[in-house]
Amino acid sequence: MAFTLYSLIQTAILCINAIAVLHEERFLSKFGFGVEQGVGGFGDDPGVKAQVLSLIRSVRTVMRVPLILVNSASIVLLLLFG
Amino acid sequence: MDYTPTQSGFRQRKLQPNMRQRNSSADGLEGSQLFEDTSGAAHGLQTGNQQAGPQAAGFTGQSILSDPMSNLAMAYGSSLASQGREMVDKNLDRFIPISKMKYYFAVDTVYVGKKLGLLVFPYMHENWEVRYQQDTPVAPRFDVNAPDLYIPAMGFITYVLVAGLALGTQNRFSPELLGVQASSAFVWLIMEVLAVLLSLYLVTANTDLTTIDLLAFSGYKYVGMIIGVVAGLLFGRPAYYLSLLWCCAAIFVFMIRTLRLKLLSDAAAEGRLVRGTRNQLRMYLTMSIAAAQPIFMYWLTYHLIR
After folding, report:
1. B214 or B58: which leads in pLDDT
2. Which residues cross the membrane (chain A) (predicted)?
């Protein structure tokens, strides 16, 4: 299986894009990941679900602008160089 | 021509290094520069230092007066160089923590020998804890349980070379394949470390395992892979399977015993059954990290032995 570092970068961009496009209202609330069940307790043990939720939310917040830049750059590069 | 005994010995000593340095900086000039071609002096000054240039042009005939200019140029150049080096060091330290890396390479031969023995036969070792010294772990040189990066790095390089050798015996070798093998093994390593980091985050394990520690632990499997491939090359497929099986079991036990102390809570680490989803999740996590090692070992080597 011939992986290169370039394919790793591609995978990373695709995965982060996938996490960033999950919409809260339309999709996540169907799975019980909605807005109203947010941070919850500050107890000792957030649990896996709360961690996943905060991960998704933080990826959306932090990576929004860099993703825009990286995606536009890769669109331009792919158009130019195939 | 002019660096004659008319000048004092002190001046002459000071002038020699100047000329040598000007030789190294002014590449375009040919000829024996040691005999102070002063037009060469002005040329060297102009390439070296812009601000002293116009002033030096007026002094072309006088080697004595060109001294302070060349000194100035030298001082300016060397201060620029040291500033540049400082800036590079500071920025590099932000991305790759060099001081922390030095800890992982502080190994010696005895440690490497013992660690390799542990990786292949971990069943007799009893005390798996890392010794601490005032809140920082002891360097690998002094404690065989401490993770290091020397063995994984050497193992990776050796794996790439052995893979090239194995492909060569099957007449499938070409130099690009070495690069392909290296990059795909590296990518798998990075993905494994990222997956472990992600699962550690999801399970909220409060450990002191750093990323570099995880990199070190994931790199220990290269030793087993190399042993398997070399045995397969020397003695054929049954030997490959046997040695790979042995090394897989050894790495599995090694990882479980090492990670148990770091990931699980103290009570569970000692073997007592502790209820609670949290400990259960951590136990599953430890098991899956350890089980992923043999899978990767097989995955990365089976195509080398046909």
Report:
1. B214
2. 6-23, 61-81
